[in-house]
Amino acid sequence: MKDLLSRALAAAAAFALVLYAQPPQKPAFSDIATHSAASQSAIANMVSQGIIPGRSAQQFAPDAPLTRAEFAVSMQKMFNLPAASQAASFPDVPASSPYHSAVEAVAPHLARSLLCFRCALVKNFSPNEVISRAEMTMIMTHILVSQNKLKLPDQSETAAALAAVTDGEKIPVPARPYFAAAIKNNVVDLKPGKTIALPLAVSRAETAEYLANVQKKFSMPVLRPVR
Amino acid sequence: MKQIATIALLAASLNALQAANNLNNHGGPTMQNQVKAFFIYWMPSGVVLDTSVTDGVGNFETLSKRFFDDLSATSFYNIVTQYPGQCGSNQCVVQNGPAAARFGGSWVDAQAYPHAGTRADPLGDSDIQNEVRRAVNQNHWTVDANSEFFVITGVFKNTGKGVEECDSSGSNCTFNAFCAYHGNFGFNGTQALYAYLSDASFNSAGCGEGISTATNTQLASDREVALMTHEFIETVTDPQGNGWWDSSTGSEIGDNCNQIAAVVTMNGNRYAVQQEWSNDTASCVSTFGPSIQFTIGTGGDDLRGDSSATASLQRPAGATFETVNLKKQNDSGWGNNTGHIAVAGFNQPSQTALGQILVRLTSHNSGVETNDNWNIQNLTAKVLTSSGTLLCQQTLAGNPLARLTGSAPTALFATPNCQPPIPPAATFSQITFNIGTGGDDLRGDSSATVSVALPGGAKTFTLKAQGESSWDNNSAHTKTFTISPAVTLAAFGNINITLTSHNSFTETDDNWNIQSVGITAAGSSGSACVLNQSGNPLSRLTGSAGTVTLHPRTGC
After folding, report:
1. pLDDT, average across residues A46-63
2. Does domain B427-550 match CATH 3.90.1150.10?
3. Domain ranges of chain B
4. From the candidates B9, B13, B171, which should be mutated to test the interface with A, based on the most A CB atoms within 10 A?
5. Phi and psi of A105, rounded to 5°?
6. Most C-beta atoms within 10 A of its C-beta, which of A66, A190, B493, B551?
């Protein structure tokens, strides 16, 4: 009986693997047609896994900036961050907020004092603010490091990785190893002129590409398709 | 010496990513006496500091000035004395006390902003730096390493929205990241220290500073002072970004306690301030002290980076009442001929007698290392009140003063200057003997007594009765007895310790090595040293010479 059960479970697992290995079906978004094939594929990939939901059944809003709340939801989902087990850390994301769990899950990775070194920080999370490339890079790299998927470079490796980055000097000293790790591992790409473009908002399509790339690069499990 | 290259691990401690950790010293300077604060209120037409008061200002400006008038010699400012900075090859630390800090000046600038100051067109960090330059030139202020310039923007009277600003990265702004920040920039060959403060009450991203009730009748003013204390204390301890901050989180002294307020009284006036991080207690505090400050010069043999050193504070009779970290393992090494400062709370009543300091070197050898050796060239210990007043100071020097090694890792330094005089009239009703046995024990069937000469005649106490457990080799024993009536310290006369053998049939007389004797008297005024002696042995008692006479006040 025991043997039969384990065989059945193995067969089910194999079936599931085949199922998940299927290329994600492209959602019928009417507003992504002008985007590159790679972008459309990444969007389809992220939507199918529920990492970045569409704005509606027909609209993905690929060029709209991603909000902090949306990014928190994506991070919690993709990295399987634990659900919130504490009271609200931010007055503007109370426990009743639909984003509360995701925001609390991401909170340890905001690393705000690294990114805003020598700042007296604000209390709010500001869920509807757009997320900048600086924040996206910092949060994602911080999670990867904390999950032992990525190792921070030492001082000389950090200096080497950022030497050619034109806006590298604008990265605060404590945050530099994270950005160096992100660049070395293509967590974030450089914009023309070899700039990270720290304050630039990240669009939803760009985010889909970044996340799809990270998921693949770090061999992270593909999530069950959303139906 | 025997230095083996070690890699300083600066990588984040992932287990403590968001925990409040102690601050690390990154080797840069800290501000030194006299610290001065200058305020620049940048208020073009249509901008005020507080929309809740009719003139748009109220006590907003005067409160900050009064704060600095009152700050010196307070236990709040004393917090920063925990954090020394680098002055050449030696460390130095800001001293609290009268005139430790002062208000430097203020200026209201009505010049228009170079940007709208809105979310769509915020001010930038370069605008703030230019404003500092303009204020310095306009007012003939002096820029130096101990002056900080605060630039404060206000709130638009017509919209009620605070002026918006972004830092040099462009990604951190008043509307999404900070209430304030501090920084430094080159100015005529020196570094200008400055801070930008948004108008806390009108920053929509959450800068209430944990204050909901006005301490000085105007909420916006109190919040701004609290926000200012966050930046000011951070600037004192990390003026150039290479001072004190937590390597794993980037948090400075104020960040670990961000928006945690406290009300402190300074010079009779009450202020809402932000609490600050204390490495001494690993907690947020609004007061620090009394404290003990060590200044230690290393001689011709360094203290390695992977070694640690502590100082045990001991009473005159040798009991340790507190142990202070001088250097933690993996703090930067103390190179040859360099000076270092370590500060800790002196967690005792201020009249506590500090009789001696035991410095201990601990080697933490890596695979190929042997034990560290360390030459101490000089040592100064200061006990200070929470307002910075010196209670006592002991300075010791030698060439070397002490050499600590793997086999002799400790050195004991007497601190007679730190034993406050005992009031002559104080009386003592209890006497305690701490006796160390050396390399020859006191047998179980032997007895030992002590006789103390007192005004009414000698009193004899039994240290060990016949049949009590033996006092084995290298063991320590404490016995306390009551003296009645109580006597003054001067009344204690000679002290005789006597060994009496009670031999069984086959035994010969006992011999007993006494290695150390510490005697303290206790009374309602506290405790005092009666005698403190040691030797190798201090005395050997035998059948033919069974008594040793000790003289009071020796070694105290």
Report:
1. 95
2. no
3. 25-285, 291-418, 427-550
4. B171
5. -65, -35
6. A66
For B3, other C-beta atoms within 10 Å of its C-beta total 13
CATH code of domain B291-418: 2.60.60.20
Q: Do B145 and B29 touch, CB atoms closer than 8 A?
A: yes
Comparing A83-87, B113-117, B211-215, B300-304, the range with the smallest average pLDDT is A83-87
Q: Does residue B7 carry a pLDDT above 80?
A: no
Beta-sheet strands, E only, within B385-473: 390-404, 410-414, 427-437, 447-452, 459-464
| Mean predicted lDDT score pLDDT of chain A | 89
For A160-178, what is the mean pLDDT? 96
Strand partners, B108: B41
Pairwise CA distance, residues B145 & B36, whole Å? 10
Instruction: With CB atoms and an 8 Å threshold, state whether B171 touches A111.
Output: no
- Residue B65 token pair: 């000035």
Please state, in angstroms and rounded to a whole number, the distance separating the CA atoms of residues A150 and A172: 20
**Where is B193: in which H helix or E strand?**
strand B190-197
d(CA B513, CA A85): 63
**Which chain B residues have a beta carbon less than 8 Å from that of A175?**
250
Mean pLDDT for chain B overall:
93
Q: Are B191 and B184 in contact (CB under 8 A)?
A: yes
Question: Quick one: tokens of A115?
Answer: 């990114």
Domains B291-418 and B427-550 are alike in CATH topology: yes
Residues of chain B contacting residue A113, judged by C-beta atoms under 8 Å apart: 246, 249-252, 255
Q: Which residues of chain A approach chain B closer than 8 Å at the C-beta?
A: 90-92, 107-109, 111-124, 126, 129, 132-135, 142, 145-146, 152, 154-155, 170-175, 177, 198-199
Q: How far apart are the first and last CA of chain B?
A: 35
Angstrom distance (rounded) from CA A113 to CA A120: 9
CA A12 to chain centre: 30
Beta strands B101-109; B35-42: pairing state = parallel
What token pair was written down for B118? 């809105």
Residue B259 tokens, joined: 């928006």
Residue B474 has pLDDT above 80, yes or no: yes
* pLDDT value at residue A179: 98
Say yes or no for a CB contact (<8 Å) between B231 and A113.
no
pLDDT digits (tens, 9 = 90+) for B416-453: 899 866 556 778 999 999 999 999 999 999 999 999 99
ipTM of the prediction greater than 0.85, yes or no = yes
If you search the block for the tokens 């945690």, which residue do you land on?
Answer: B260
CB B297 within 8 A of CB B378: yes
Closest CA to B101 of B188, B23, B36, B13: B36
Locate B335 and state its tokens.
Answer: 């190179």
- Every domain of chain A and the residues it spans: 2-217
Give the distance from CA B105 to its chain's centroid. 31
The 10s digit of each residue's pLDDT in B199-226 is: 999 999 999 999 999 999 999 999 999 9
Out of A92, A115, A198, whose CB is closest to B170?
Answer: A198
pTM: 0.79
- In total, the C-beta contacts within 8 angstroms joining chain A to chain B are 120
Reply yes or no on whether the pLDDT at B32 is more than 70: yes
Over the Cα atoms of chain B, what is R_g? 30
SS3 B183: strand
